[in-house]
Every structure is written in structure tokens, then in C-alpha cells.
Amino acid sequence: MGGEALEHLELLEFLERRWGETLKRYAEALALYREARLTGTRGAEDIYALHVRDCLASVPFLPPSGAVVDVGSGGGLPGLVWAVCRPDLTVTLVDSVRKKCRAVESIASDLGVTNLRVVNARCEDFSARGAAGREAFVLASARALARAAVTAEYLAPLVSVGGCLLTFKGPKVDEELAEARGLWKRLGLGSPDVTRYGPPDRSNVFVLWKKIAPCPAAYPRRAGEASMKGWWL
Q1: Which CATH number fits domain 3-215: 1.10.10.1590, 3.40.50.150, 3.30.750.200, 3.40.50.360?
Q2: Which of 141-155, 188-202, 211-225 shows the lowest per-residue confidence on average (mean pLDDT)?
Q3: Closest Cα partner for 48 from 77, 85, 74, 7?
Q4: CB of 134 closer than 8 Å to CB of 127
Q5: Measured between alpha carbons, how far is 123 from 91 in angstroms, rounded to an integer?
Q6: Residues 73/94, Cβ–Cβ less than 8 Å
Q7: Where are the domains of the chain?
Q8: Residue-level pLDDT at 141
Q9: CA-to-CA distance for 160 and 77, rounded, in angstroms?
Q10: What predicted TM-score, i.e. pTM, was given to this entire model?
Q11: What is the pLDDT of residues 81-140, one digit of tens each?
Q12: DSSP letter string over 7-40?
């Protein structure tokens, strides 16, 4: 194991020692919540192993300070995990489903998490020209939201120049990135950097883009358009 990978593993072990009790309570809350389905996984142990620990792996990529945003957060993955592990950051969760937003607010309150706010909105509206979220964050992320290039359109308008976009991906990442044909500058982004993480028998990767220029006012397009026609076409 290389030095960088070893440092990453050691940091994850530290985070679990420091915040493991709270994170396990979070997994239990996700498993028990009945008013809205917050994950596709049942059982606190499975939720912790498959979802919470997966999100925990992204914590080392968070900025030293500032505000970060999780788009399409659902039950709070990864945003609530970030808020627990990095109480020095301001974490915003954006989701269009009101029931899920209420659930995350309730769970965060029960866990005593105070550095988190939940916004019930479509990300296209939250990051539109003149909106509160427009280029307001140091880092924006999404997990299991859309294909990589589509996710980039959702996230790029949220991040200030110099910040980063991060998304969680799997074995089809190369195929997804190839769709955009290297035209990332259209969104104000540099070329994506792919970083593998997790067990060696899995194909888990993070894709990160640096925000190198302001996002053009044309993005994001109206709700639903990003998934209908690629911005690179």
C-alpha cells in the first residue's frame, strides 16, 4: 500500500474512532425512519457498512474551511456524515423531496448536529443566476444522482472559482466521462481527476473537478433539461 493510501486509511480509522458512535446512531435512525424511505438498504448494520462508511471515505477531500453542499442528499448521504465529522464546516443539503428534507432535519436535531441546513428545492432553482446557491460553495457533491457529465452540470453552478466538484462513481466511470468528450471548460471546469477508494475488490471511485472559471449563465438549464440533452452536444 502506497504512502498516500495508507494516510487515507489511517484518517478513516481516526474518524471512526472519533465519530463512530454518532455515525452508528445515524445509521440506526435511517433504518428506523418510517415516514419516508431514505435508503434502498434495510437494517442499521448494512446501512452503516454500505452507505455511511462509503460516505466517510469522502471526508478527506473536504476543504479546510468554508461552506459545502450535498445535492440530491436524500437521507443525508454524504452531507450529514460530513456535518458530523467536520463540525467546523457549514454543510447545506439540497433535495427536492419535502419528506426527506424533514426527515434529515429531524435526525440531525436528534444527533445534536448544528452545522447543517436543509434546503427543499431543485438544484437548478437553487443555483440559478441570482439565486442564493449560485457559486456560493467551496465544494459541491452528489452521490448516486446522475451520470457523471450530467452531475457536473448540476454542481458546477454552485461552486466558486477555485473550489471543487466531487461525485461518487463505480465501474462505468470511464464510459460516463467519455460522454462529455473533454469539453469541461464549457462549465468552467478543469479535466476530471479519478481517485479509487474502498476495498480492492470493488470499483469505487471519486471524480473531482477543479472550478477554474465562472460557470456560464446558461447553466444550469431548466429543471429536467440536463437529463434530456447533454450540455456537450
Answers
A1: 3.40.50.150
A2: 188-202
A3: 77
A4: yes
A5: 15
A6: yes
A7: 3-215
A8: 98
A9: 22
A10: 0.93
A11: 999 999 999 999 999 999 999 999 999 999 999 999 999 999 999 999 999 999 999 999
A12: HHHHHHHHHHHHHHHHHHHHHHHHHH--SS---S
Query: At 33, is the pLDDT very low, low, confident or very high (cuts 50, 70, 90)?
Result: confident
Distances (CA, A) of 71 to 37, 50, 200, 203, 222: 17, 19, 28, 23, 16
Grid cell at residue 145: 444522482
Is the separation of the CB atoms in 97 and 106 below 8 Å?
no
Which among 204, 170, 174 is positioned nearest to 192, based on CA atoms?
174
At residue 203, φ and ψ (nearest 5 deg) are -110, 45
Return mean pLDDT, the chain: 92
Transcribe the chain into DSSP letters. --HHHHHHHHHHHHHHHHHHHHHHHHHHHHHH--SS---S--SHHHHIIIIIHHHHTTGGGS-SSSEEEEET-TTTTTHHHHHHH-TTSEEEEEES-HHHHHHHHHHHHHHT--SEEEEES-HHHHTSTTSTTTT-EEEEEEESSS-HHHHHHHHGGGEEEEEEEEEEE-TTHHHHHHTTTT-GGGGTB---EEEE-S-TTS--EEEEEEB-SPPPTT-S-STTHHHHS-TT-
Q: In 3D, which of 162, 177, 229, 184 has the Cα closest to residue 207?
A: 177
Cell of 55: 460516505
